[in-house]
Design brief:
This protein is mostly helical. Helix content is 53%, strand content 0%. Helix 1 packs across helix 2. The longest helix has 15 residues. The mean pLDDT is 94.
Length: 72
C-alpha cells in the first residue's frame, strides 16, 4: 500500500516516486497547496477506494501520515 500512496503523490506533483519517502513533507518538500490536497483526496479515493475526511487529514504534513491511514 505504501508504494501505491507514494505513486499517487508522484502523479499529483509530477515528481519521480523515488524522490518521495514517508518522511517527505507535503508543504515544505512537495509544496502542496490547499487545492492540491483536495485533488490528492480525489485521486486516493479513485485509486484506493477510500479517502480520509478532509478535516481529519488537514493537519497531516508527511506522506507517512497518509500511508498510515491506509494501514500500510
Amino acid at each position: 500500500m505504501q508504494d501505491q500512496v507514494i505513486e499517487i503523490f508522484a502523479q499529483l506533483t509530477g515528481r519521480d516516486a523515488s524522490e518521495i519517502t514517508p518522511e517527505t513533507r507535503l508543504d515544505e518538500d512537495l509544496e502542496l497547496k490547499s487545492l492540491d490536497k483536495f485533488a490528492l483526496l480525489a485521486m486516493l479515493e479513485g485509486a484506493l477506494g477510500k479517502a480520509p475526511d478532509p478535516n481529519e487529514a488537514d493537519p497531516w504534513n508527511t506522506v507517512a501520515e497518509w500511508i498510515a491511514f491506509y494501514g500500510a
